[in-house]
Amino acid sequence: MLLTAGVASAIAVAAALSFEASARVFRAEKEGQLAAIVAVKVEELARWRAERIADSSAIASDAMLVDSLGRTDVPALQEDLGRWFRGLMGLGDYAAFELLDPAGRVVVATSPPPDDEPQRAAVVATALAARRPTFVDLHRHGESEPQLELVTPVMRRGEPVGALLVRIDPRAYVYPLLRSWPAQGTSAETLLVREDGDALVVLNPVRSRPDAALALRLPAAFATGAAPRRREPEGPELLSAAQPVPHSPWTLIAQVPVAEAFAPLRERLVWTLGLAAALLAAVAAGGGLWWRQRVAGFERQRLVAEAERNAVARRLDRLTRWSRDLVFLTDDAHRIVEVNERAAEALGYTREELLRLAVPDLRDPATVADFPDRVREEMAHGALLFETRYRRKDGSTFPVEVSVHVDEVDGRRLFQGIARDISERVAAEQALRASEAKFRAAFEGARLGVALLDARGAVVEANPALCGMLGRSEAALRGEPLARLVEGGAGAELAAALERLGAGAIETVEGSYRLARAGGGAVDALLRAGALRGADTRWSALAFVEDVSEKRQLQARLQLADRMASLGTLAAGVAHEINNPLAFVLANVDHAAEVLRSAGRDPGVVAALDDARAGAIRVREIVRELRAFSRADAENDSLADVRRAARSAMALAENEIRHRAGIVLSLEAAPPVRGSEHRLGQVALNLLVNAAQAIPEGDAARHTIRVATGTAPDGRAFLEVSDTGAGIAPDLLPRIFDPFFTTKPVGVGTGLGLSICHAIVTGLGGEIRVESALGAGATFRVLLPAAAPDATVGREGGGPATVAPSVPRRGRVVVVDDEPLVGRAVQRVLAAQHDVVVLTAASAALAALAEEPAADVVLCDLMMPGMSGMELHARVRARSPRVADRFVFLTGGAFTAAAREFLDAVPNARIEKPFDPEALRAAVARLVSAPAAERA
After folding, report:
1. Where is the signal peptide, in residue numbers (predicted)?
2. Measuring CA to CA, which of 91, 113, 229, 613 is 20 to 30 A from 141?
């Protein structure tokens, strides 16, 4: 009996020891189960959040939604978008959609929004500032059920123009996911919590508290791990596991009461103790057998060892099963002996198929060649980390990072490999390299100057455009403060601005600066610099430098052209106003001189009148040249006389020259050239003014300006202007025809004169040459191709030459001019040969010509108030074409486009004011003496 009692005691002790060992294993198993459950649910929640963000981003970028924010027809917008939104609500747990303006005001909503406009505006402002979807965590509006909100910016051309707010009901997916449990149980549950001060707020209903959502609070330490704890002070002891949900403020906790978790183990203990009691009874009844005791001991040891091995195996299985990496165990021949489910899923094989393969079978064929070398390294070091490519069952490949460890188990060499799919990392690296290549291509190929600057505003890198712009190599620019290249005091201002930019005080710098070029000269530049907040701490700002020198030159040319156009309009108007009085002054002076000369009166008075006439003629020529110079519409298909163009320019430049130098003229005949004589006069004038400005004032006796025209040896016409001024340095000669290049002081000249000359001459098919030396003056020679041999040069004034007939008859002349003094002057000139009627209004002339249509000549002013000469001619032509053909137009300067077009269209003669009396008499006599058939 003592033996029996001893056996019973041994069985009881063994049962107790077995229970303790099993409890340790069982607890570890339960903790692993909880951790696995948490990991699965966290992954599901993270995937769910990512899907919601992807949905809202796709909806917010839809063109119809973006364009809707610019519409004003709100009822139609409500109907269109409301229908679309309601169709989208079934895509994924969506309770409502709202389209908001940038201030958070509702534009379109699928249901009446809660009365929370300030809160909504703050959320919208946060999302627009971040320019990415923003979750509003689980909350309540009043007494409503908990809900989530997702606000996504609506962007147009890179700028936010509104927001899409999606309301999400957690009861549709999130809460059911949290309630689900992989095994039967009465108290096990999952809690979704977030931190709130020094506590945790439960976000979901739980079994024991259906009203727990946003109402139940737990100590913050509750989410720190799996150690046993109590949720309430008097509640049951709990086993738990916790894990944060990525990219969210949530933490997931899985918990189960210890009593419920250990219930199966206790049942097993009760069964074991019952078995021991039955065995004791059997031994007591039968006397027991020694060998049964030994078998029972051995069996107990075997069961404990097997349980421990199974527990380790289960833990290893859980570790590999839920791992995101591919886990392999291979033998000495590299055949796969164990593999996890993730590897089978990633490679597209079943587990059984993988167990029939070797590691080289999984490699991309292009990478198998290095396999022997990898094995040797693994054997030599016991471990190895490297990158390669695996091939899936369908033949596609993907990059992996492989970690291999070599182990010895019972004298058998095994290789444990863990492979991680690095497709995303490789794609990111490739995208980064592609981005760097694009940046480098844009940086190197940009036509704008680009510089990367450090926090001090010094150049870290400069692109070729900037180097070429400044005439410096990148090595010379590197480390150079950009502000040091700025001319004048603006450099200090730019340095201070760039320093503030580097310190983060401002985000941009923009301004106009003159940057010094290496070797002299400067570049007018527009500089824009923006702050960089990247990982590369070498770079603080990106500066763009645009060379606007040419743009400003073009602006100056346009301004000059505008001034020239204004000058032309002014000159034509002044010419008209001067020519009218000048016409009767000159005519009356001629008349008075002729009367006195015929009467043999005081020769001194006649000489004085001749002097006055010469002055008036000089005024007339100056006005004519000024008007001709200002004409911007001169054509190049007429014929021009180089010699006459030179004389015109001399008349205009005389005042500029006479205080500086004497003039030497050598104006020989030259062949006519095809082009505008006015433009040639402009070339001659610019060359003369340029020559005069090269000579200082006050010593005209020592200096000369020589003007020559003639025929060059090759048959071309030439115009030559030379001076005895300061001359031009040899290094400057190649640049003198560049726009805005000048060696004159500021305020003297624009730098456009010679460039204009060069443009006009080359436009006429010619060339302009220059010879000069410092201190020896300069000679400019213009060479122009001669026109055809049979061409003749037209007369100045636009009409044919008039030659008085030998025996004129007395005719009837009607003079129409709004200036009475002009009319009387014409009457004095013609009264001796013809009957002259003077009228000062075109309307009176129209009536007079209707009553007495026998006028031989009508001398008509072109520009008159009321009815112009052009209109009078048209109305007379409609009634009597013969009389209209006998109009001769008196012009003081046709300064309107309509007047010039009219004179070009009609064949009538015209005489410019102030007119030469003899030319006027000749023109009248030709028409009066025309044959009767022509008059008819």
Report:
1. 1-23
2. 91
